Amino acid sequence: MFPHVYLIAGVSGDEETWRLKGRTVMDEKERTESVYHCKWVDEVICPCPWVLTLEFLEKNKIDFVCHDDLPYASDGSGDIYHEIKKAGKFLATQRTEGISTSDLILRIIKDYDKYIWRSL
């Protein structure tokens, strides 16, 4: 789609993530480091605001925000990407089912005893 892209990935900070979504498996430093090692990522912004504004995009020279297209309700907003979508700066991605942190945590909890025995 865009052959010459400089990809900036945003990683939400611990404090805001814990307040809005709950406890995380990895802290912000670990999340930032893992995203930074993705071969397509050129730069990582951490902490990145949970709700992006057009001012934030302009300040950081960001042309587009990419996320799956489902409305993301949070912190009193029906869709935290509404302003970005309205400005024509949103590109929808395809969500991959079964690989979210929530899914991974549920799989670990479901097979908790197996993992414990394996680790002993």
TrEMBL record:
**Would you tell me the protein name for this molecule?**
choline-phosphate cytidylyltransferase
Q: Which Pfam families match?
A: CTP_transf_like
* Top-level lineage group: Eukaryota
Q: Read off the Gene3D superfamilies from this record.
A: HUPs
Record EC number:
2.7.7.15
Q: Which residues form a coiled coil?
A: none
| Segments forming domain Cytidyltransferase-like | 4-105
Task: Give the molecular function GO annotations.
Answer: choline-phosphate cytidylyltransferase activity; phosphatidylcholine binding
InterPro entries per record:
Cyt_trans-like, Pcy1-like, Rossmann-like_a/b/a_fold
